[in-house]
Write a structure and sequence with these properties.
Radius of gyration: 18 Å
Number of domains: 1
Shape: globular
Number of strands: 11
Distance between the termini: 33 Å
Number of helices: 3
Strand content: over 45%
Largest sheet: 7 strands, mixed
Order of helices and strands: EEHEEEHEEEEEHE
Length: 204
Amino acid sequence: MTETLILFELNRKPGILKVCYDVSRSPTESGLDLFAAGSFDVKMCLGYPTMRAFVSSYDGKGYFTASAWIQIVTRREFASLDADAPVAIVPSVDTHPILAELGVPFFALGFPAEIFDAPCNNLNGLARLEWIADTFLVTMPSRANNHQISYLVGFRWGYVEYDLAGERQAESSPLVVTDVSAWRKHLPLLRSQFGRWQYQEAER
């Protein structure tokens, strides 16, 4: 497992975000055995990446800690294993379907917010898939910030999956700390799909 520390500032107070990035080696490590009673084969998820990010230290308390996560997933879909260019590039806001119906863009929120994700088996008949997640810690909109969602920090991670000789293959991509330009890139998508919210490029 790799651990990455990222400095951030929330409500004019400094903090440190810790991102734990690993590969799933058993269903119990990722809690996927919770879904084993259904038709979903949890063993399919072995070899895929797992990500957990949380605030490891922060100078604020109580309402100062209010924050949220927004995650944008981009699917780069390929028609063959050796194709240079994808046949489709599909970005989407990664939130629970019920939250999406309610017009809420957040993956998670809290005091402070924490995020965990363990994607797998998203090939859906493609020859190859590049699954790319841009994950952002943001402000929770409130009276204290004029109900704005503002970028705090972000990072990118994901994987490539394909079938080879009848076996599913998954290769984790490196975790990369991004800057506000990654957030700006996805603002048109957020504003078009979740337009009732107000977004700013950065807190400051």
